[in-house]
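INFO  loader      accepted 1 record
INFO  loader      residues=182
INFO  predictor   begin
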Amino acid sequence: MSSESRTESPRADGANFREAVTPDINAPMPKNAPANAAAHGFLAGKIVLPRENPELFESILRELIAELRPETPIEARLVEIMAVADWRRARSWFLESAEYTHTINEQQQSGPGLTEEDAKNPGMRAALAFKTLNDSSTVLQNLNRYEVRYSREYNQALSLFLQHRSRRLKEDSRRRRKYPQT
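INFO  predictor   done
INFO  writer      dumping tokens
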């Protein structure tokens, strides 16, 4: 092997190598990604409820885009589905916390209801709120069901994204071998 071929070979290999990079959430979108700032705002406007923070939703979406770098409309859509599922899952956590807080506050306002010994236990009010919510409502069961649903939706979208990307990269590689550029 000539000296020139030995030099060219690593260069050719290096040209196809992509170094791992820490995602920059403020980095611009890849040029061929179909999503843009206006589209993000539109999506946030449809998903984020009044009094929720649309910038926080957009931050979640930007972080996913920065890490996954969608390059096709299908990949971009799957990333959006992941962001929406993550947002809704976080909302269910917030709602659960709000339900507990509300029930604990109601119990405190309705009278002591606790023995002096029980009042010393920091988890007692939460335990009583849990019992009240379970006995008088299906809110905890529903929130749990929604959390599981959104977790599955997120994981399924991520799995589909990775499968799609893997197939696409394999097809691109086959095409390059079949029709090499000169």
